[in-house]
Specification:
There is one protein chain. This protein is mostly helical and 465 residues long. It is 79% helix and 0% strand. The chain has 16 helices and no strands. The longest helix is centred in the first third of the chain and has 37 residues. The N terminus is likely disordered.
Length: 465
């Protein structure tokens, strides 16, 4: 297929462009790869305990995902200013944004823990309404509550470490957050090996051991990243950050005006993902286990998708903050093209390897087959999701948070959730076909994203004096 010179310039960058991309992209890939591989091993070890334990962790993680995405939204609402402050070399502005992150993160954590402690059973039970035995549902609920309550101990450390690491990434520094994350994940993996099965003389705690290991790993990450923030000369912008605890009212106003749609988006997006899984689970309790297996595997193949989002946020944000709008437009398309084709290759690999992974889990053959179908469907739409993700981060970099809200979570609530509900309640389609059609709707979202990026209305300097 022949492309015009104009398209070549638009979609393919030069050597300097890819050098800049890989400086941010590769550490992010390493971090995400290790994260998702350890998560896979984590789920694999828990899966050895049985279907009830694996499903219990999966249900609990649905709630924790919502919390994590809310924190991500809160930090991102401030981060769109921080990344442009870095682009304009305004480190005083960076410090003010960082303080705002800490305040918002602490408030969100307190509210989240209070909700999980008072409404845990009601929230977890939403995922246990499908076809299956009462005994299995009760066992899943008991395991989910136990796991969730222990995981709450790690939430404060998680929020503080994310506040620091996101600021580091917004500066363009990826290695230290990667190193801290890898250390935490290795701690988690080691703790799982010792505490789930009682190896090397440690007590055999099963699911409780898995939760303890994960919670402890959060504090390892916080310790490493806090030490680097204090003593590493790369992070001079942290120096004196708490000599003052004030955040200007004008900055709070900007964060809430521009950031409120972004915070709401992350809340509603995470809720929409949990809602879709809850709708799937109405067909049968077995779906929970299949989704848990599938999610743990496909995570290892989404590294480029996630790392590309990070690269878009940093590169486009810095260019906009520096006033280089034309370069930002050009490189947004190049980043999207890079992510699409890289994820197409990973999707093809996942499609052919999918049948191998479920064999490692201690569960029924029916659940394994359903998990394979889910993985293969995801592999087909992976490049579409990658390009859509780049569109989202491009729009967000320019502070078009209302547009990103409509593009991202509003689309899920208006299209995906009604589609999933209608297919579950009003058709007799097998869950595998139903899952395919819901995932295929992502193509509509991509088309919308391409139109919005092409229009260029997202090009906006948020920190211009």
């Amino acid at each position: 297929m022949q492309f015009s010179d104009r398209v070549k310039v638009k979609l393919i960058g030069d050597r300097a462009f890819y050098k800049k991309v890989f400086r941010i992209f590769l550490p992010a890939v390493v971090h995400v790869s290790v994260t998702n591989f350890v998560n896979f091993l984590d789920n694999l070890m828990i899966g050895k305990l049985g279907t009830a334990q694996m499903s219990g962790v999966g249900v609990s993680n649905q709630l924790l995902l919502v919390f994590n995405m809310i924190i991500f939204g809160v930090l991102s609402a401030a981060g769109i200013f921080s990344v442009q402050f870095f682009g304009s070399q305004d480190f005083s502005g960076v410090r003010k944004v960082f303080r705002a992150k800490i305040y918002m993160g602490v408030v969100t954590t307190v509210l989240g823990i209070a909700l999980f402690l008072t409404a845990d059973e009601a929230l977890l039970s939403l995922f246990l309404q499908g076809e299956g035995s009462k005994e299995l549902a009760e066992s899943i609920l008991a395991n989910a509550k136990t796991y969730l309550h222990i995981m709450l101990f790690g939430l404060p450390a998680f929020v503080l470490s994310q506040s620091i690491s996101t600021t580091m990434r917004e500066s363009g520094e990826m290695k230290v957050p990667m190193q801290a994350g890898v250390a935490a994940l290795l701690t988690n993996l080691t703790g799982n090996y010792l505490l789930i099965f009682g190896n090397l003389g440690f007590p055999k705690l099963g699911l409780i051991g898995a939760a303890i290991a994960t919670a402890l790993s959060r504090y390892v990450e916080l310790g490493i990243i806090s030490y680097a923030a204090k003593y590493n000369d790369k992070f001079r912008f942290f120096k004196g950050v708490f000599r003052s605890f004030s955040v200007p009212a004008s900055l709070w106003k900007d964060i809430f005006i521009k950031g409120a749609p972004l915070m709401l988006n992350e809340i509603l997006w995470s809720l929409s993902m949990s809602a879709v899984n809850q709708i799937y689970s109405r067909r049968a309790l077995k779906v929970l286990a299949a989704i848990n297996i599938s999610s743990s595997v496909v995570g290892m193949f989404t590294v480029v998708l996630i790392a590309s989002g990070t690269a878009v946020a940093v590169i486009i944000g810095h260019l906009l903050g520096a006033g280089k709008t034309e370069q930002a437009k050009k490189e947004a398309w190049q980043l999207m093209s890079f992510s699409f084709f890289a994820c197409a290759l990973l999707g093809a690999l996942l499609y052919f390897l999918a049948p191998l992974f479920p064999k490692m889990f201690n569960t029924q053959d029916e659940i394994r087959q359903t998990a394979v179908s889910f993985m293969r469907t995801f592999s087909i739409v992976l490049p579409v999701k990658a390009a859509t993700n780049c569109s989202y981060y491009t729009l967000r970099a320019g502070g078009k948070t209302v547009i990103t809200f409509l593009f991202d979570s509003a689309f899920n609530w208006v299209v995906l959730i009604p589609l999933a509900y209608a297919l579950v309640e009003y058709t007799s389609l097998p869950i595998e076909e139903l899952y395919f059609w819901v995932q295929a709707a992502t193509l509509l979202k991509l088309l919308l994203g391409l139109v919005l990026v092409q229009r260029g209305t997202w090009v906006h300097n948020l920190v211009k004096a």
